[in-house]
Protein 1
Amino acid sequence: MHLATMVGGEEPYGAIRDAVLVIREGRIAWLGDAAGAPSELVGNPEQTLDAEGGWATPGLIDCHTHLVFGGDRAREFEMRLRGASYEEIARAGGGILSTVKATRGASEDELVASASRRLATLLEHGVTT
């Protein structure tokens, strides 16, 4: 990849403008300024991706994700935005118990399909782990 703005791991931390990222056998072999790229690493690439000056960042980590569940909490979210307490939401039939009920009521195929859609959305937004 070349012509991207990258953030390196060495101090002092900062953006690397016009960066080159070399990947060999699925691992980062070199990252740095295009002018300093070792010719033995950047010559005859199998594939080149021009990031057109965009930013390249590591994948994001979402440390608390529930992919598999039935139902939808959009109504509850709206209620919270309008100031409803969790107790009020529960009295209105929402809350975790409604999710448990919806999950138990969903078929395995429905749960797999909805989890697959959620996973695709996470990946589209840069979450890789």
Note: Residues 67 and 115 are 5 Å apart (CA to CA).
Protein 2
Amino acid sequence: MTTQSDQPGLRVSDVMGTELHTIDGLATAAEAMALMKQLQISSLVVNRRYDHDELGVVTVSDLARDVITHDRAPERVNVYEIMSKPALTVRSGMLARYAVRLLVQFGVSRALVIDDDGNPLGLVTLRDLVLGLSAT
């Protein structure tokens, strides 16, 4: 029987970014914005509250949609109120073309990359995947 890892083709692990930046869910939106600005990034992984909890992600889009457009004070909004949880995840060995389909199907631009035990390894964006596939 052929498994996905036996199939030829570009894998998520070939194009993913491995640098993850995290934030606590109890941090404020203002703290998330400051960290994103400092690191020049557009998303943060939200730490698990306990061992078997799901991962979350907070993005610039979340901040714009749930804080800025509603005139909420960023200092009074916690990250857990606006984050996406559970975060969309893909396995590192998944074929890139399937990951593209998944992201498009869910209307998101990024996914957390996890290992077989559910531990985060990195982040992959639709841009990473599409441009990676164009090079093959």
Note: The longest strand covers residues 120-125.
Protein 3
Amino acid sequence: MVHPRPLLPAPVSREPAPALARLDWFTAPDSLPATEWHRSGRVAILLVLLTALLYLAIGFLGPSIVTLDLGPRNGSLLPPWNIDGPSALRNEWVVTAATGLAIILGAGGMWIGLRALAAGWLPRLRRCFFLGVAICALTITVPPLTSADVLMYSAYGRIAVLGMSPYAITPGGLFRTQYDPILRWTEGPWQDTPSVYGPILNWIQIGANRLGGDTVHDVVFWLQLVCMSFMIIACTLTIGLARGDRQLQARVIWLSILNPVLVWAVVVSAHNEAIAVAFGIASFYFLRRHPFIAGLLIGIGCSVKATLGLYGIAMVWAYRRDLPAMARAIIGAGIPSSIAYFILEPEALSQAARNSGYLSEASWLFGIHALMGTFMEAESASVMVSVLGWVGMIVIAWALSRALPHRRLLGLSGDADPRRDPLSIAIRTAVVLTVAWMITAPYSLPWYDLAAWLPLALYGATRLDLILLVRGLALNLAFNPGRTVGQSELMEEVIRRIRQAGSTTVMMLIVVWVLLWWYWTGRRNGTLTGSRVEDATPARLPLVTAAPSTVGPAPPRQES
């Protein structure tokens, strides 16, 4: 008897999965599939990774008009590391174009990620968080890019180590009287400007100089490490406030630790903004139960940078219906601030106030200042511009306070009134004040945006997501590079035109955009002078206003 031959199983396909499919490692299993590239979490993650690879490559190639020259290593094995790459790859036009491409890709990834979240994309929270941490950590393995501010931090610490006050002595003034291995690496235009930073930053700069010795390379590394560490701390604290809400945590991760616009401005350029903001975010943890501790943390943050006082105003406003709590918060804030500014470093406060008198080429007021200069003295024009900045801030803050609804934030029950919850009020007010200050201040830089992005991430989706993204893109491009050395005359002219024409125009349009948003929101709500209370929590709202669909909160689950 002949038995039929059994059929062989069909051969298993060995074709590799599409390259983009591997990025699904960052996507939760219950996430809705992407239907279009501009709402794809895969594409968003890919652009974030490409952005990081670009600026790491630019930094590793060595000194250029974008990458800082940190001088001889003197045998040090510490990062940052770089090679002396081919001069063709470090040409001023090549590196400027490459950094510009990185900035644009990062902003594009940010926008696509927001749309993906609105369309139902749910990332794996821990994996995306640690991806952001890894990107920040890798950033300090190469020299800082686009800005030489970190060299000024080194110089101020050096002056203090030498027994002088960085609030009275300038790096340029001291270097003209004696040679110094740290001061010689500073760059214009701030060499003849005393420190405008708070006492705590002064102590951090002293510590970096103690550890780095006479090698500016090592001093810069310790400053990079501190800035990066506090960036991670600030973002981690913000993510922790959103615990228990997967959608909100996903939003916070995307707008903070994985935000290419912020990572570029704060970590890649080694700016100290995150040190102050970390204390401000930490204060939110104590607003509901411990006003004194919340105030204490705000006071410490103000001792880092005086501009964190905006968070302090938000805290006071949150307690306006509870005067005993307000008093405890003010006392808490006053203790470290008074010790720092009036006892230990009395010159610091007056120098910090100098910052309000500067005017940036990229400011919305730059053209107005130039116009005023045609029919009045320069000093009078500067005073008028400063007044316009303050008036503009008040107007925009009022408009935002009408346009932004009151929301129940971070565990507040659906029956509670968010207008009486100190945490909900403080976060909303912090968003209002920081955004109003940033878009109207005569002197505003892209790394200042960190103070607004973090509370905005907690507040939930609004049109401000797109407004801040456009602002960050425009300013990062305007300060690419932000240095003033090593540039040809043609490059200087191109940068000047980008700042004085392009960026200034964008900043003016942003001010108009906010006012129009207030107007149309008021028309829709039936009042231009009142604000409404939303029934939904931020997790139930679309994460970008342009998205047509919304997603309800996913059930809680453990994810790896």
Note: The chain has a mean pLDDT of 90.
Protein 4
Amino acid sequence: MAAPIDLELKKAFSELQVKMLDTQQKVKLADLQIDQLTRVQKHAKLTSMEVSTLADSTRLYEGVGRM
């Protein structure tokens, strides 16, 4: 009688282990995305601050591709 219970426990444990690994991967991916978006946000803020310090008559150019 103990054998079927052990098999059920092993199966449930392995399913939870797979689910845990999947969740950990998703959390790592979310953390990487947060880090990347934070860098993009910081870059945009710094660019905006630098551009706002320029006089209105200053000509600005925007890059449109690789050189």
Note: The CA atoms of residues 6 and 12 lie 10 Å apart.
